[in-house]
Amino acid sequence: MLRQETIFVTGASGLIGKATVRYLLEKGYAVKALLRSGSLSPFYAHKNLRIVRGSMEEILNCVSEMRGCEAVVNLAANQYHPTESFVVNVKGVAELIEAMKKSKVTRLIHISTLAVRLAHKGVYGKTKSQADDLVRKSGLDWTILRPSLVYGEDPKTIFTTIAAFVKSLPFVPVLGNGEQPFRPVWVEDVAEAITRSVNNLKSFGKEYDLGSKEALTLNELIGKIQKVLRKEKQPIVHVPYVLSIMGALILREIMKDPPISVDNVLGSNQPTDCRPEKAYRDLKWNPIGVDQGIKKVLIGDLKGRLPVAIVGLGKMGTLHGAILSTFPEVRVTALVDKDVKLGKTILSMGMAGRFYTSLEEACKHEEIGAVFITTPTFAHKEIIQECLRRKLPFFVEKPVFTQWSDFLGLPQEKKKGLITAAGYFYSFRRPYVLAKELIDKRILGRLQSFRARLLISEVFREKHGWIFRKELSGGGVLMNPGPHVFGVLEKFFGRPEEVLASTRKIYSREVEDEGRINLTYKNGLSGEVFASWSVKGVPLTAVRVEVIGERGKMAVAEEGISLILKRGAKVANSLKGIKTQKRGKGVFIPVAQMPAPKEPTFVLSPAAGGEGYTLEDRAFISSILAKKKFPYDLDFAARVEKTIALCYQSAEEGRTIRGKRGVYR
Amino acid sequence: MAKMKQQIVFFEEGKTLPSGSVLAAPNMVAYIRDVLDVGPIGAVVKRFIKLPVLDMVRLGLRNLPHLLKIVGKDFVSGLLILVEIELLKSKKAKIASVVLTDQVSDLGIAFGNNVLYDRFIKLAHAYEKDAGIWTNNFKTTAIRLGKWRLRPDFMVVPQETGRDLWETSGIKIGVIENKAELVFYQATAKNEERSGGSRLLRLPTT
């Protein structure tokens, strides 16, 4: 049931603030979240959430916003700055109390710190201690909560700093001996305790420590983080206490936002005596264990997510890795590449998963439910065979093989029933999807001819990468990026009967830079294809297909579809609801006006067809989860690559090649 | 709503940038073209050696604290060197601000790499330029930056991005209206409810 109570939350953008706002909303409260002017809201829109712009320095301006609120949760704090800490933590609290009284809000949940108990307090402990006194004497219905070390997903916490050290350094520096016990508590549990105390009469006028059931030292906490991140052998280096204090003082002087503060050093080297039992009892609060919490923060909730390995961490591996990282139903568990340094770079990008130098090794240590093969073409064969051997669904970038005969070498019995995909992402780009629909709905009537172009400005002198070595890539522009245009033609018209091709080397020594192909189909359709990577003025791959039918003609390209229909020809139903622009004798359908994907789509590089990659990956993952065949699978790839193979044969033999029955599979 | 037009440009070797324009950095299309030829490190070195000696020294000194990371092929450190080289090479053009290109910024958001944005904003400010983030996924990016408590000076979004989303974000927005033209909008009090002196933004519901 939706409650109508509104809670005013200060410090809403902080670690605890973000979790508390979310938790309150989940529990049906309405929330007014105080954020500094100009800061970006960390919250998705919610009908019960309102953002109030302001700050603790001018909290008295928020009186009218507070009016009618059930309670105020004060999470605003400045932890490090010698003067600003006082302004926010003490003066701000005094004015907050005044604002509450003016707005007739009587309930205050004030978040303090265990640092107030330290024998030698830093600026945070001192100012929070003064603020606690103000709260006690406020005459409001107050509750003071004192969490131990709070951990969660936030880049600016001690926990995150330690985790970053574990991930990136050869050792973990610890300020002092790291032997003081404390009770680290998961931020979501703190948010729950705050929410539970809002209407809990028992908690009025009381002070509670918030901590986990398990007391452990900093050294032990680091050990647990290392265990989760599989860095158990990493040494811990203890920096002597005095040196740590001096270091923190220096950092404070030279850095605006130091990673370590004097308060951190003081806090981690003195006992705080956290006693959370009263909170467990009064608030009926039951925080999760530290091991479980650390896993949730560092790895995330893994249940029900498809574990995926990415093999090949170059440009395409990064692209698919980024897309997969945005899918809630997927978790990347393994990153595989022979190049260890490249692995390090990819991990430094923030990609999830552990690095391995072979798929075999990854399979030994990780759970893997699907594989994305994004290595150079020459390395595909071995990995595909490994996937087939292990019956692992896989996606492989196109072209699949350097020579078509490799398709014939795949064990049919292993392939049967296995979900596979080849990276023909043009099949998912809006213009080509709509064009196929229009062709199938016979908007052009019987098809007569077509003209296709694949152009990109890439080669204007001899180049040296693997793509330019025939034994490694299988060929030039027809193999890479040629499959884009041949994939579109396969999707539109199926397989050709006859192929007549010529190729030309302009700059490259081993592979062709240009290809001209005539294709003839069974139903009388014929067309020509021109592919070149040596034309100027085309920075991104451009695939344009003009189709002529008995009722008109259509041109499809990345930016949209042009359609000219003969007088009397009826527009198919599929154009209904799509906005068209008049252009010359016909109409133009810009890509933005074409039917958008149903689900929100995270798009990388839209100019290069990013949406197509996302939709392709989503379709493949959905196929695996639904155990359904993927339409652009290995068999589709075999048909496309057979056409390319026939082009090479024709160019070499200087004659028309007829595709024999049975050679396509 | 205040409105202002500026040109958005990519750095190209040998091309003069229009004064007062917004530099989109790094130019990933040009970089990837070079990577295919000379590899990722070679492409950076190729750019570095074309810098004047003084700029080489400046770049070296500024990046000294990140030396270990650079040697270890850290993504953010390497990428920001590319940005810095383009900033140094654009000195004469007196560009107004620098925006992190969408290919890179969307990648960083997908991977949850907050360090990229933090260091990019600091780098732009060190060169006394406004720092912008160009994204094709405005909602996700704005929320993630908010979670990380990072605030660029402006964000660049494609025209298709829902106006209701960015009008209420409270940040200066540049919308790409033509291929190379940015139209800036700054949310003003008209779009915000004023209440008791504090500014109240109503978030759009999804």
TrEMBL record, chain A:
Molecular-function GO term, any one? nucleotide binding
Domain of life of the source: Bacteria
Domain named NAD-dependent epimerase/dehydratase: residues: 7-209
**One Pfam family, short name:** GFO_IDH_MocA_C3
Q: Where is the Gfo/Idh/MocA-like oxidoreductase N-terminal domain?
A: 308-407
Gene3D superfamilies, alphabetically? Dihydrodipicolinate Reductase, domain 2, NAD(P)-binding Rossmann-like Domain
Q: Which residues form the GFO/IDH/MocA-like oxidoreductase domain?
A: 433-554
**PANTHER family hit by this protein:** NADH DEHYDROGENASE [UBIQUINONE] 1 ALPHA SUBCOMPLEX SUBUNIT 9, MITOCHONDRIAL, NADH-UBIQUINONE OXIDOREDUCTASE 39 KDA SUBUNIT-RELATED
What's the protein name?
A: Oxidoreductase domain protein
TrEMBL record, chain B:
Q: What is this protein called?
A: Uncharacterized protein
Provenance organism = Candidatus Nomurabacteria bacterium GW2011_GWA1_46_11
The taxonomic lineage of its organism, from the top, reads: Bacteria, Candidatus Nomuraibacteriota
